[in-house]
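To: structure subgroup
Subject: Chain for Friday's discussion

All,

I'm putting the inputs and outputs inline so they're searchable in the archive.
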Amino acid sequence: MITAGVDIGSLTAKAVVLQAPALTTAGRSIMPTGSLPAEAAVLVLDAALAEAGLARDDIDALVATGYGRIGVERADWRITEISCHARGARHLLPGVRTVIDLGGQDAKVISLDEDGRPLDFEMNDRCAAGTGRFFELMSAALNLTLPEFGDIALQAQAPAPISNTCTVFAESEVIGLLAEGRSVPDIAAGLCESVARRVLQLANRLHVREPMAFCGGVAYNRGVLAALRQVLGLEVVVPEQPQLVGALGAALLAVERSQ
């Protein structure tokens, strides 16, 4: 059986092609969503299929998730990203009880039961603070690339306190700190800590426990990972290819629903 999961987020589109029953990943792809989510869904799935050496007609079941899931053509099921991220994280990290997902334009904390099913979740989708978009803007303000941001933050001597979590005000605060002569590493670390505190606010509304998985594109930022571990006081693990967790979960749910 061949299944596929497509996760159409606000900034990036992801696809994973699975081969059952071994549940081996045959193909995967990531690309910008752009202004046409439905078109991005076609392109990202075709790219994953090409890597797998397969065609559309080879897919036995397709699950779509993410903001753009409604526009994914020929999807057999459309499932929320909460369920898909929980399933994908549980597959990669057996026993995981909490999932932190920091995506392009939202932040989620999901609590799981002993069997890996979502119990409850808290979500911030009304503000860009702590999301990929937030770090895009802060990186530009600090004249850094996104890959550089996390590594620079780890070089901080005294992280600068960032009082604003609003992206617009935080950017103004960063400019002010630079004018005061604060170092780029200290400011970057302060921004990472401000995001970690925002996640803590979400986590405090839930009964979170270890093991904790950190997913989404922001999980590649080592500065945020270090800040989360410090602020939460818990072990946080980043699974392999954290940006693909939702698409993987969708493909796994496609297998289970087909069976």
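Points worth raising on Friday:
The first strand starts at residue 2 and ends at 8.
Residues 145 and 237 are 24 Å apart (CA to CA).

D.
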